[in-house]
Amino acid sequence: MLKIGTVIYEPTIVDGFDMNVYYSKRVDGVLGKPEKAMYNDITCFVDAKAIRENPDLLAVSPNGPATRTNKKYTLPWDFVCPTNKEYRSHVLDFIKETAKTDVEGVTLNLFHFPEEGFCTCPRCQKMHKASGLDWLDWRAETVTVFLRQARKLVPQRFGIEIWPDPVLAKERFGLDFDAIADYVDFFHVPLSANNYVTLYWVDTLTQDFVKLLKKPVFIELSAEIPRPVETKAMLRAVAYLSRHNLEAILLLVHDAERAKEIARTAVNDSNYRGWLEKFGFENMNKIIDKWDSIYGK
Ligand SMILES: [Zn+2]
Q: If I label 207, which of 200, 218, 227, 246 is the partner at 20 to 30 A Cα–Cα?
């Protein structure tokens, strides 16, 4: 059955949601405490704090380092080179500690190369040469091996967040989806946006990933949307997504209150519910019924 869940910045399980994903290691490098009964989302090779303390960690390319200020690229963060042994161990240790507690699952994000052209630091060049592999295959192998190591540490459900690029993922990030599928239980694809008033791309990318990926798919939508008209558009997007063969639809919220507000908005909107009934959104109606029993007036 399709799950509805949250991706949330506070360690709170929200009533009426089947699963909750909590960022326990964030892009700023802050380490949270592993949270029981939640999926713990661990940021791997983006770590502002570690890079501030040791700029040598940065991934590099012929066009300069993997930083936001390098305008040859449009990177949203500064990236650590994924072959740095010490840093890798630090991340794997955190994954291991997380899995030792009673978490429901572990999700890794930003566990790959920052973009095409990375990383050409002396260590990566040496490792590439020694591998005898083609450059793109070496990068993909490097990422897959890291995931295989992490997988071994996690008896719970284990998966990854991926950038929503179904075509160039290997060239850009070193993601070989088929090879990775052997080591993960799910793929988590964030389709982040300021609003979902325009929807075709959500549907297109979801279709692409469901066909392409050999493991169950979670789709994440941004739900931290202030205007009511945008919340309604987002709820329609959730309904359309509910027709695809997904394991879960996840809503990104800052806190539990926002998730509850969305559920209340949905159950109390008779237009929306009439529209769901009329067009036979069976999975979505089940979610709404569950929310209604908790949040209905
Ligand atoms: Zn490197």
A: 227
Tell me: the pLDDT tens digits for 185-212?
A: 999 999 999 999 999 999 999 999 999 9
Around ion ligand 1, residues with a beta carbon closer than 5 Å are 81, 83, 119, 121, 124
Taking the centre of ligand 1 as the mean of its atom positions, its distance from the CA of residue 162, in whole angstroms, is 21
First-residue to last-residue Cα distance in the chain: 26
Contacts of 103 (CB under 8 A, 6+ apart): 34, 35, 36, 37, 38, 39, 40, 156
Per DSSP, the residues of 105-134 read EEEEES-S-SSTT---SHHHHHHHHHHT--
CA 70 to chain centre: 24
Domains, the chain: 3-295 (3.20.20.80)
- The interaxial angle of helices 228-241 and 282-295, nearest 10 deg, is 130
Question: Ligand 1 center to residue 81 CA distance, Å?
Answer: 4
Q: How far apart are the CA of 77 and the centre of ligand 1, in A?
A: 16
- Ligand 1 center–CA 181 separation, angstroms: 25
* Residue 226: predicted pLDDT: 81
